[in-house]
Structure formats: C-alpha cells, structure tokens
Amino acid sequence: MTEHLDVLIVGAGLSGVGAAHHLRTAFPRKTVAILEARDAIGGTWDLFRYPGVRSDSDMQTLGYRFRPWTSAKAIADGPSILRYVRDTAAEAGIDRLVRFGHKVVRAEWSTEDALWTVEAVHDGTPVTFTAKFLYLCSGYYDYESGHAPDFPGLERFGGTVVHPQHWPSDLDYTGKKVVVIGSGATAVTLVPAMTDRAAHVTMLQRSPTYILSLPSEDALANRLRALLGARLAYPIARWKNVAVSTLIYQLSRRRPGVVKALIRRAAMKQLPPGYAVDTHFKPRYQPWDQRLCLVPDGDLFRAIRRGTASVVTDRIASFTETGLRLESGAELDADVVVTATGLRLLAFGGIELVVDGTPVKLPETMAYKGMMLSGVPNFAFTIGYTNASWTLKADLVAEYVVRLLRHLDRHGYDRCVPVNDDPAVTERPLLDFAAGYVLRSIDEFPKAGSRAPWQLGMSYAHDVVKLRHGRIDDGALQFSRRTAGAGRLGA
C-alpha cells in the first residue's frame, strides 16, 4: 500500500525533529511523517559515539528556538544533546511520526498529479509514499563512511586503526599510545578526552587550525535563567550569543590580523612557557576561511600542559609495523591510530530527484534562499550555517516552510517552484568555505547565485528578516493550480 501525506520529511535528526514540531504546531490537521534510514532518532548525535563527542556551538543557539536549553553546560556533550533531541520529539509526539529503517532512494514529482512519489527501502523491501510537499532534513554528510586518505603502508601497521565515524564500542585504549591524525573539531575533541585512559595521546596534523578556548558554562545565561526562568531567559541568551559570534565572524573577515593576534595570545597564555606556538597553532589561512575549533575550558591546552597530550606538525611518509614514519624522518610509536581525517559530503543523502520524468542534475540547479531548488516544485531542504549554529538556520527554514504552506492554502495553489530567469545572476559555490570536506565534494552540489534570492546567506539576523518576515510571492517563486477547482494543500 502507498501511504499519502501532506508533508513528508526525510531525516529524524536535529533538523527533522524541529521541522516536524513547527509543522505540527502550525497545522495540527495536516498529515506529516518522517522517514529515517537509521533505527533511532538523533541523526548525527546518534551516529557519532567517539570519546568526548560534543557540540562545537553553544547550546543557546544549537537548541531549538521553541524549546529552551536548561542545562548549565553551554558546550554540551553528545549524549546530552541526543537526549534533548529525543525528549523534544517525545514531548510533542513527533517520535510517533517516524518510520524507522526507511532509506529513501528516489523521489519523483508529477506536475499532472501535483504529487511527489517517494521510494524507500525498508528491510530490503521497496516501500512507496506520496506527498504534496517533500522536505529534506538529511544534512549533507555521508552517513555510511567518512573521508579516509590512502595512507602508504597502512597494511603493515600491527595496531588498531579506527575512524571516529565508526567508533568500536569495545575499543580499549587503556595504557596505550594513541595517535590522532587530524586537527579539526573531531581531533581537538578526541585528544583531551582520550587522555583519561591512554598512556599518551598525540595529535598529528599536517597544518594548524585556529583553536579558541571558551567556558563550558555560559555564566550570563545561567544567571538569567535563575532570575527570569528558562522561558524568558533563553531568547536573551540566544541573541547575546548570536551577536557575539557574528561580531567575531565579521571581525575575522574585516580585520583578520587582529583576530589572529588575539587567538595566538590566548593560546600562549594556556600553553607551557616556551612552547612552539607558531609551529603548532599558527594556521596558514585566515580566521573563518575554515570553521574555528572551540575547546571548552581549554581542555586541549590543559592536556598539553599536563604532558598527557602533545601536538606534532608534520606529514606522514608511511605507516610502519609499530606506528608512523614522518616526512621529517621522525617516528611516532602507536598502539591505536585514530583517523580524524574528516567527513564526506553527500547531497540530499544520495536521493535521486526526478521532475516529470527528467532526472534533476543538482549542479545545474540553483538554491533559492538556501533552502529550495530552481525547477524543483514543492521541495525544501535544510543546510545550516557554517559560521554559526546549524539549528539557527534549521528553525528559520521550518518557519519559512510553514509560511509557504499557508500561502499555498490561502490561494488554493498546488504547486510552487523557484525559477531563475535573471540573466544577471551568476553562479557561486553553494558553500563558500575552504574546509577540505567541502572542497572535495562541492561540485556535486547545487549552485548558489550572485544576488538575492539565490544567495546562501550566512547572517542569522538578515535571514530572520528575509525568511521570517519577507514576502513569499517575490517573483522568483512561481505558483500554479492544476485546475480552477484544485484542492488546498492539507487543512
């Protein structure tokens, strides 16, 4: 049997749960379901199980706008975030909307029927759904595998090699020498977290990353919560953190030398006297060309001061039987090697999109407001900010989808589709970000445009104005009805 829905969401992670909450609150009589390939709610926060897994954004902004984060910790651990997402789903009954173990492989739009036909696989069996609106909240990571470079001599290594995306539950590194390859957010999380049991942990990096220490608790947010209660304090703390992060980002882009000096000075204060700061903590790129790495309470620096962790900046020549040989000629002994070498991007979870029998070639489409695709009707997706918390954008996209569906209902439209007919709009990368995981795959993604509404905005304040309050019928978004008496999109 084919199940028919008003809105079909793909993905039961942070974005999907939030989207369902917004939709159910606004349209209690619409039929909504979530297709989730995995067997649990949580998405990224259910997938990653490595030691110390945590947010690299504060929870005042990574939390949902509609549900205050009430824990004292602002930089939260993965299990706490997962519990928050699942509690949100359970309290609103969203967990009952999820179809677990449903991997979506294909979605085809029919203009004649004004419907999506969505094909999924469940327990090896094809399952079909139809929906008036398709909403992808599947993120942009490949959940099957991370990025794994081809290291010379890896087969000779006699120890254990693990990728953080597939962390073995039975891995025992007690008393062992651990080398973590990488310098991004995952590496700087793993290194101090593994020092509790490992004999020593070495972070091996090809080049440094900007690392900034922040308090794990937001003193102002906690004080406001005690004075005003969670509901009143939350938006104040949220906007305060938005303002601070925006200020740091804008200063980084406009006065990179100032920000570099501030970050370097802060690192020097937390590292041992005489430490080679410029060798290990002075990146070659400008601040926010890649995402800043946050370390709560300076835990990475503390581990280096204690001598339980160290940083080596060099390139790998080859693996050996007992560790790694570096291009400098130095050797690192290791019992366990963690390849924190990055993630792989996968546009829309690899789902094949088809419109009226013609396959959609994603690189030939352009993203409208960073959340819809040119030429693809009744379709939205969530991609969060690279310079701020993911959920800030996810909430705004969900609010916009609610406004869009109300517009369709109010005017009796069956179809809305972004159309780029402005020859002055030139193509840009969808993610203007120099991180390796982005550069490796960005050509497989839709394009952004050189001007609104085809730009992917990276300013939450601007997007609040455009997505929460801007016109729906802006000329680039076109609407139509199947017939003069076409029905409304839900009720």
From TrEMBL:
<dbReference type="Pfam" id="PF13450">
    <property type="entry name" value="NAD_binding_8"/>
</dbReference>
<dbReference type="InterPro" id="IPR051820">
    <property type="entry name" value="FAD-binding_MO"/>
</dbReference>
<keyword id="KW-0285">Flavoprotein</keyword>
<keyword id="KW-0274">FAD</keyword>
<protein>
    <submittedName>
        <fullName>NAD(P)/FAD-dependent oxidoreductase</fullName>
        <ecNumber>1.14.13.-</ecNumber>
    </submittedName>
</protein>
<dbReference type="InterPro" id="IPR036188">
    <property type="entry name" value="FAD/NAD-bd_sf"/>
</dbReference>
<dbReference type="InterPro" id="IPR020946">
    <property type="entry name" value="Flavin_mOase-like"/>
</dbReference>
<comment type="similarity">
    <text>Belongs to the FAD-binding monooxygenase family.</text>
</comment>
<dbReference type="GO" id="GO:0016491">
    <property type="term" value="F:oxidoreductase activity"/>
</dbReference>
<keyword id="KW-0560">Oxidoreductase</keyword>
<keyword id="KW-0503">Monooxygenase</keyword>
<dbReference type="Pfam" id="PF00743">
    <property type="entry name" value="FMO-like"/>
</dbReference>
